[in-house]
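Help! Submission page says 'invalid entity' but I think these are all valid:
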Amino acid sequence: MSAAPDTAALVIIGAGLAGWTTAREFRKLDTSTPIVLVTADSGDFYAKPTLSNACAQKRTAEQLVTTPAAKMAETLNVTLHANTQVTAMDTQVQCISVTGADGAAHQVAYGQLVLATGAHPIRIPLDGDAAGQVQSINQLTDLAHFQQRLGEEPKTVLIMGAGLIGCEFANDLVLGGHTVHLVDPAQRPLAALLPEGASAQMQSALSGIDVRWHLGTTVQSLHSSTGAHPLQAQLANGETVDADLVLSAIGLRADVALAQAAHIHCERGVVVNEMLQTSAAHVYALGDCAQYASAGARTLPYVMPIMNAARALAATLAGTPTSLVFPLMPVSVKTPALPTVVAAAHPATPGQWVAEELDAEAAHSGGAWRYMDSDGQQRGFVLTGKQTARRMELSKTTVL
Amino acid sequence: MKTYICIVCGFVYDEAAGRPEDGLAPGTLWADVPDTWACPDCGVAKSDFELVVV
């Protein structure tokens, strides 16, 4: 029999959207149970999707903070351990070991523990003396660092990865006056999310604002250069691209290190059941680090799943066991050159994309695609351009 | 006309543009947006929006 914890505290690891939203939703249901939030960063609250449109809006990383950490902690009655690393978890005695900014180590006991550790950018090893210059932007401090290097003058930026984040950053940087090269191994942008016709529209829209494409190839090596730009990328197709900065936007990998070290079951993410519980008692996970049973064992690194998960989890933690059921969650691709909304079916759903026949005028300003399964039911959709106004209409005809 | 931002996801509601797809005509003031309206990008409530100071 394991020792009962000497505390009923709810301890949350991570102060991103998942961590703070769990605290906020829990406080709506329970105003007295102590909440302790431990985070490796400052804990300042900001809307993460604004990382990829800060440039066009001429906002600095600092200006993206909507609520400083201290204000969040005060409003939600949370004990905040900022700039603090969690070094270990003991799920038997229900406590975590932490090291604060001052280097002092101590232990925090929990009644219930929530892992909201997020994800980190996937990095692929490159050759070349400047390989270490590649940056990713997955949090506020990354953006601050990137903006500092970007400076005031127009720059040339090479982006590796033409998925959602790569395309959003490409559009944003162009609007900020920069030159952008997009490199992706697929033959078309957003290949994993969009039907071919929609990818073609995106490619053409971004070409229209002068994004330079390098599709069907990868960056092999990155070298310092004495030319007009300090970096030179060697692509697998033989081309070279001169650039001032290189951004990697090839995807995210759930941060499972802490859970794994505590022998909690992890696959692509921390595996959680419909109640968001991990394989350890009293330990839960949500957000970019979680692999949801409620989503067919997928990770869902978007905002809307976090909001839904946090509401269900808060209810469970407050004493009302609540299964998480995801509604249809369309994702907006924030590319002003071609606004796009994607409601994806589970990738294992057999079916095909069917383009809607639009009259010539409508077809010129957007498109609509439905993902139809083998029974003829609509399981997802993609809308581009002016057709994005039909989001509600197509949501209603989508079968989950 | 003012603009309001969703504190969670950064979605911007612009009174001048309204949100015709949700039945909010251009020019619909924030005060007249129903309390049941939710952020189209992340689903949070109207009360989770803040005035954008430009």
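Support: the input was valid. A stray whitespace character was the problem, and the output above is from the cleaned input. The two ends of chain A are 42 Å apart (CA to CA).
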